[in-house]
Design brief:
The protein is an alpha+beta fold. The chain contains 17 helices and five strands.
Length: about 375
C-alpha cells in the first residue's frame, strides 16, 4: 500500500534563550496534515526539522526542499501496525505556514509596505494611485494572481538591469513596480550593482572604461558568484518546488492580520470615542454583564480589558469581536457599529474550525453580502 502524506511546513524567527534576552534564530517544523485538527494542536505532532542562528531562512528552506524531494522520489518504507504490513509513504508539501513577513520572504515578495503589497495577487499601485478614488476602490478588489513563473521572470529582469548603467535606480524601479524582492539572491544582486558603480566611476587622470568592458567584467563576476550553477539555483528554491505554488499556498496568518491588525486598531478608535464621550464606564458594565455560557469567548474580564485597554492580546480581541455590536449599539456612531458587525462576521468565517457539511458551508459563504455592502 502506498500513502500520500501532505505536510504543513512552518518557519519563523524565534529566540533560543530562556532569559528575556533576544537571541534570534530561524526554526523549521513540519506537521502531518492528515491528522485531525485536535491532534495538530498537540506538541507531539509538531516535528522539528532544522534551526540555525546563522543560516538565512531561504538556505534552510533549500535544505528542506531537497530533503522533501528526495523522500518523495524514493519513498519511505514504514510498518503499518494496524494492517500489519509494510507500506510506502510519499510526502509532499501542502502549504507553508508562518507570519506575514516570513511568508512574504518565502514568496520573494517585498512585504506589506511596498506599492504592490499583496503576495498573492498584484493589487496595489503607486502612492498617488492608491490615494485616488479609482485606486482606493481597487484595493478592495482582487488583482491578477501572482505565479512562481512570473516572479522568477521578474527576478531575472532585475539581474539584467543590474548589468546596465544606472543599475541602482533601474533595480529599485523594477522592485517597486512589481513588489518582487528575492532575499535568496539579494547579496549577488547588490554586489553586481556596487561593482558596476566602481567600474563606471572615472578616476581623475584616467580614461573611463567602455560600456562593453564594464558589461563583460560584470558578467564574469556574475558567473563567479554563481559558482558553476545557474541563476535558478541561486534564487528562492521554493519558487520551483513541485506541488506548491508559493503565492497561493501561504495561507493568511490571521492572528496578526485580523486580531492584531484591523480588530486592534478598530478597538483603539472605539475606545477613543467612548472615552471622549465619557461612556467607557457604561461599556464596562455591559461587558461585565455578558452571559458567557455557550460562547467561545473565554477572555471577557471587563475590569482587565478596560484597565489595560491599550495592551490587549489576540485572545481578548477574538472575544471582543463576538460581542461588541451588542455592547456599543447606542454608544457610537452608526458607521462604527456597522464596522464591528462586519468584523464579527469576519471573525466567525476565518475561525470556522468545524465544517459538518462542506457544500452547505460553501453556499452560505457565497451568499455572505455584508462585506460587499460595506465596500459599497
Amino acid at each position: 500500500m502506498v500513502y500520500a502524506v501532505p505536510l504543513i511546513i512552518f518557519m519563523d524567527d524565534v529566540s533560543g534563550n530562556i532569559s528575556k534576552q533576544w537571541n534570534k534564530h530561524h526554526a523549521t517544523y513540519m506537521s502531518n496534515a492528515n491528522l485531525p485538527r485536535e491532534m495538530l494542536k498537540k506538541e507531539f505532532f509538531v516535528r522539528f526539522v532544522t534551526s540555525s542562528p546563522h543560516a538565512a531562512p531561504m538556505e534552510l528552506m533549500r535544505a528542506m526542499k531537497d530533503s522533501l524531494c528526495d523522500a518523495a522520489n524514493s519513498g519511505i518504507v514504514a510498518w503499518d501496525c494496524k494492517d500489519q504490513e509494510e507500506v510506502m509513504l510519499i510526502p509532499y508539501g501542502l502549504f507553508v505556514a508562518g507570519d506575514n513577513p516570513m511568508q512574504a520572504e518565502e514568496c520573494s515578495h517585498a512585504g506589506l509596505n511596498c506599492n504592490y503589497f499583496c503576495r498573492t495577487c498584484n493589487v496595489g499601485g503607486t502612492k498617488e494611485y492608491k490615494a485616488s478614488h479609482e485606486g482606493y476602490n481597487s484595493i478592495f478588489m482582487p488583482g491578477n494572481l501572482r505565479t512562481p513563473e512570473k516572479t522568477t521572470e521578474d527576478i531575472r529582469h532585475q539581474f539584467e538591469a543590474a548589468l546596465k548603467p544606472g543599475a541602482t535606480t533601474k533595480v529599485q524601479n523594477a522592485m517597486s513596480s512589481t513588489g518582487v524582492c528575492d532575499s535568496a539572491s539579494t547579496s549577488i544582486l547588490e554586489s553586481l550593482i556596487e561593482l558596476g558603480k566602481k567600474l563606471r566611476k572615472r578616476e581623475p587622470g584616467s580614461q573611463a572604461r567602455s560600456e562593453s568592458d564594464v558589461t563583460a567584467a560584470l558578467e564574469k563576476e556574475f558567473e563567479e558568484q554563481l559558482r558553476g550553477t545557474t541563476l535558478d539555483d541561486a534564487i528562492n528554491p521554493l519558487l520551483g518546488m513541485n506541488g506548491i505554488s508559493m503565492h497561493l499556498d501561504t495561507p493568511t496568518e490571521i492572528l496578526h492580520t485580523i486580531l492584531l491588525g484591523v480588530v486592534k486598531y478598530f478597538w483603539g478608535q472605539t475606545v477613543f470615542l467612548l472615552e471622549k464621550a465619557k461612556l467607557l464606564h457604561i461599556f464596562q458594565s455591559r461587558l461585565d454583564s455578558v452571559d458567557r455560557d455557550g460562547m467561545n469567548a473565554p477572555s471577557l474580564n471587563a475590569d482587565y480589558i478596560c484597565h489595560y485597554k491599550g495592551s490587549l492580546i489576540g485572545k481578548h480581541f477574538k472575544s471582543l469581536a463576538q460581542v461588541m455590536p451588542f455592547l456599543i449599539h447606542d454608544l457610537v456612531p452608526r458607521t462604527v457599529l456597522n464596522g464591528w458587525s462586519v468584523i464579527g462576521e469576519l471573525v466567525v468565517l476565518v475561525w470556522h474550525t468545524t465544517i459538518p457539511d462542506t457544500e452547505v458551508y460553501l453556499v452560505s459563504l457565497v451568499r455572505t453580502e455584508s462585506f460587499k455592502g460595506v465596500i459599497d
